[in-house]
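To close the chapter, one final illustration. This time we ask the reader to focus less on the individual chains and more on the assembly as a whole: which components sit near each other, and how the overall shape emerges from the parts.
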Amino acid sequence: MLNHIVGGRLFAVILKFKSTLAFSGPPNDGTTSTRVPSFPRTTTIPDSLHLSLPVRNNDGENESATCIFDIVVSCIVMKNINDPVVGGIPVKRLKLSNLPAKHDFKMTFPRTPGSIDPNNPPWPAYRGYHTYSFANATMGHRLPTILGKAIDDVVYTLNEQSDEDLIVDLVQCIERMDSLKSELQEHAKLRPIIDDGEADVALWNKAIVKYFRGKDFMNAPWLFAEAYKYRRLRECFSVSKYWSNYDVFFRQKCDTFSRSNEAVFELSGRFGEPFKHAENLSSSEKAESLRLMFLELTQVCLWGNSTDLSLLINMTEEQIKSLQSTGGEALAETEKNILGNHMSRLWEVVRDLNKDSVNTGGGRIDFVLDNAGFELYCDCVYADFLLQSGLASEIRFHGKRYPWFVSDVTRKDWAWLLNSMVYGQLFPKATEQEKEGLKRLGLRWKQYEKEGKWIYEQHPFWCTGYTFWEMLNEAPDLFLHLSKSDLVIFKGDLNHRKLTYDCAAPYSTSFDVSIGPMASNAGAPKVCSLRTIKSDVVVGLGSNPQEGDAIGENLDKEEPGWKISGKYAVVLLSEGRPGEQVNLV
Ligand SMILES: [Mg+2]
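The assembled structure is written out below.
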């Protein structure tokens, strides 16, 4: 439709909304563009207009939306627009001052359950375009750096190859990684995942189409965008012919474990021998010594989470060693830094597993793992104690199907750790006694696997961008499986972000409220989060709202960066609704 207007002014044009809305974050200068094109006195009217309008997103924040309108010319009046009378009829002109007063748009949080979805968490989401936030630093700086290091690793591997087919195939992997890095830096839109045969393709693409169409790396919630980057990295290799199982982070993971020798031998020296009580102890003394050992090892397992490669890219060896210190005095000191501390309740839950399990003598405990290497080693020391003490009879470890958030455990990492302990030569400077102690520990753990007391699993849901609020809907088999556990221990920062929907909940929000359906669904297991704090979401502080919020706000004032340093931690427990029938509607 083309129309010419000559010698008059366009009086009435109906703009018909066409259908496409594309949202983007605020422009860099903090302004929004709302210029409507003006026409000269002789002009050709285009078929459609593309207008950039300021809008509020669902968190009440400013974004801009590109709206496309069809232009339908309904009436063209060749008279002066200022005429008070048109066709003999007085025209009452619209006065903007007659419009209702403009009020500030305010969202109320938390959102009601029916209005929560992956793009709209219960409290405002963290997004990459929040300037000066950790989300912004991660999406804008940390992830491109991690990707750059990953490319270096592949280049190193490439230079070791001699077979042409392998070389050509690997070069294509590098080209795909380069493209991904450019997309990340240019804030490209999130495209669907290619069908590479992975079990999670449908889960990913459903989320992208349903909740994140038109979103890019910076304006999608940080949690989803960051997870998406690791899925795209997986795709760089999964579509290749020869390198589909290549792990770009494997060298880093192995290297950090072999540099953790002091803490590794400290633990194998103390816990290498099978657990037994000292002689001549009364039953109450035995119970007390068991309790103290449980509390100590819970802290070992907790602080083992400090060494997360995705966050330690610039840390020195000395700094890593001090983080890994597991001595009694160090633990007493670090307990002060556990800001939300349910350890004594956790002990009561674990202690009662032995009492409640009539047939098996001990319950089932699941670990949803975080990092490979030293942290996994600490998790296994803890799990070993739980088994030997009779508190647990079966431990299930849940890892990732492919390389994830740099240092997360894959099946290969799991096997590497156990076999390196038994057969490896990672610690040439260690004494014969130290090597022997480590080997004995490794052999015992491998035996647990053979006997089915330790089971390693890797459900596809763990490598998606969904939070655990959606587990029952998106992975009902996994929820059902976990509902049969006596206690599910979630390790680390990413699991905590997924439990709590990674949103700006107040510091005093109770753990039960912040994990939503994982606490309130029928059949929800007892859940414990062992997490050193390395990102924005912090909940479960204090025993009342005033106290909890004050703890966090004081730290905000006095110790900027406290939420990303790994110095502070939480040990939080939800009782769930175990034993009730899971509702699989
Ligand atoms: Mg991790």
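The chain has three domains: 4-92, 134-238, 250-574. The CA atoms of residues 291 and 347 lie 7 Å apart. With these observations in hand, you are ready for the problems at the end of the chapter.
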